[in-house]
Amino acid sequence: MKNKSLYFAIAAIAALALFPTLVPNPYYIHLIETILIYTILLFGLDIVVGYTGQVSLGHAGLFGVGAYTAGVLFFKLGLPFFVTVPAAIAVTAVFGAVLALPALRVTGPYLAMVTLAFGTIIKILINEMTFLTEGPIGLKVPKPTFFGHKITEVEYFYIVLVLMALALIVVHRILKSHLGRAFEALRDSPVACDCMGVSVYRYKVYAFVISAALAGLAGALSTYSVEYISPDTYNFELTILFLLAVIMGGRKTRSGALIGAAIVVMLPSLLSDIELFQKIATALAIGVLAMAAYNLSKKVKTLREVAIPVVATMGMAAFSFWLDNITDWRLTIFGFMILFVVYYLQDGVVGFARELFARATAQSAAKTALVQATAGVVAVRPWSPVTLVNNGSANLLEVNQALMQFGGLKALNLVDLNVSHGSVHGLIGPNGSGKSTMMNVLTGIYQPTAGTVSFNGQVITGQTPSTIALSGIARTFQNVQLFGEMTATDNVLVGLHHTYKSNILDVIFNTPRYKREDAAARAECASLLAFVGISELAEHEARNLPYGKQRLLEIARALGLRPQLLLLDEPAAGLPPADLPDLMAMVKKIRDHGITVILIEHHMDVVMGVSDTVSVLDFGQKIAEGKPAEVQSHPAVIEAYLGSGSTAH
Ligand code: ADP
Ligand code: MG
Q1: Among 164, 154, 157, which Cα is nearest to 39's?
Q2: 135 lines ligand 1 (CB under 6 A)
Q3: Taking residues 97-119, what's their average pLDDT?
Q4: Which ligand is nearest to the CA of 410?
């Protein structure tokens, strides 16, 4: 698969490089150049939209900032191309950081509104700052001159192509590195992301800054491409068009950006040439009909499922022949296309093609995966963390009079909890007694209303979840919080994020340091997957794993943090009873490596079997504590369990 994308990229770039020779028509060369420029912007927009899952309606504004930075620097100061373009990238990146600020506070529709306002403000500023931008009159900027030679249209096409290829490599490397995994992780589960020591806050800003830098490059290139810029270009329609391009092309793919750019750039010409429109509508209708017939014959879809797309595309084809003047209908057709994409093409053209392709090759892929998995197992080293030793202090964790109040409810009511080094500490209690709340207080998700938590002798109350995680507390979640769209391997690699010291330049230039760290992290990841017994699922998306395996994957990911303290919130929930002994053995092995464990569990035989000490919570208060046997026979505990009607097995 990896090689296939590489060959595809090389073939596509080679075809584009030959284009001016094959089609020496300035109109088409300019059209392709525009597509390439949009592609660069869409690489960046996809980082924000596809990877981090944030909505941005501010990217036309960023495109404008890039265009005007280059334009103004040339127009006012006569600076050359190789100064204006990097300057445009830098200035736009700063604006990207500004655009990121609202994304740190709000999401969804609110973020869409704020970013839209940002775009509008940029447009107004460009319009009003006439001393720099000449206002609505716009700026004329000729093609750049290198050493006295004025670049021709075709030469400029090649400059854009080379920069697009470079952007492709840079974006590809960033996204497949630990940085890219952080972006995806914060989309799929911000809470888990923070608890793996990967600051959601910081990586959202990074994503917007990188995205903006690409928009800045695209903007600067467009200035020299069109040779005239005016504020009107960077409007609401353009921003919608960009978003549509990412979705139509297919998010999280580079080819999707290119296809999306091609669609939106050619759409206006398509919608003004009625004969071309008729041909494409007919071809589309035949294609959809053939697909439907195939799906019906294979019985993968029902008549009802295929009816609407078939009728819609045939209707559009018929409509195209009935029309005699397309221009009046442009917006209507455009609207229908958006509806079609939103309903039937949610993963875009690339996603659709992949699905088709995947169905055809599903069997061979399964075989390769099996071969790879078995090949991998041989090479995997057993997981062996640095065995931690007690540094002398009595308790690793000390909770002092923790109070957690939600309105009138005291979910934790002045609880003390001391967890000694290298022990397994069971935490039990009926549903709603405050066990998960305790985990959330320990990991910084909740700020306790009063009381303190000390870890290794340091007070950690008030620190952010990612800082606490990095100081050595890892956890799993009662309601599994995996990064669903990422593979099992990538999930664990997010846990290992802290092992990467490489910065973005190491990633972009693929330096020895980055390669070494990446190889080490992948080896440790394979060991961890083997330790929890899910090596054969390494390349499966987390959301497709059986529930029990998801819990095991969460443990592997948490161990990736190389924690001193591991918090397990009901790890046995969802596991088949036959797997419980394995889980208990695993908890003991983790403890034997010197990692202290707090275990919340409803299966009494599991808690009692592995815990050194057990604390019992009821209505937010600690009602008993001691060795498993003592606790089990404690009258208050029996009363709490029987009284609340919970089932204790
Ligand atoms: P347990 O894990 O022991 O089953 P929890 O710690 O999840 O219990 O919940 C303890 C109590 O605190 C419950 O009554 C629950 O409804 C309440 N609670 C937990 N989190 C919140 C929250 N974020 N807001 C309001 N109430 C909460
Ligand atoms: Mg709970």
Answers
A1: 164
A2: no
A3: 88
A4: 1
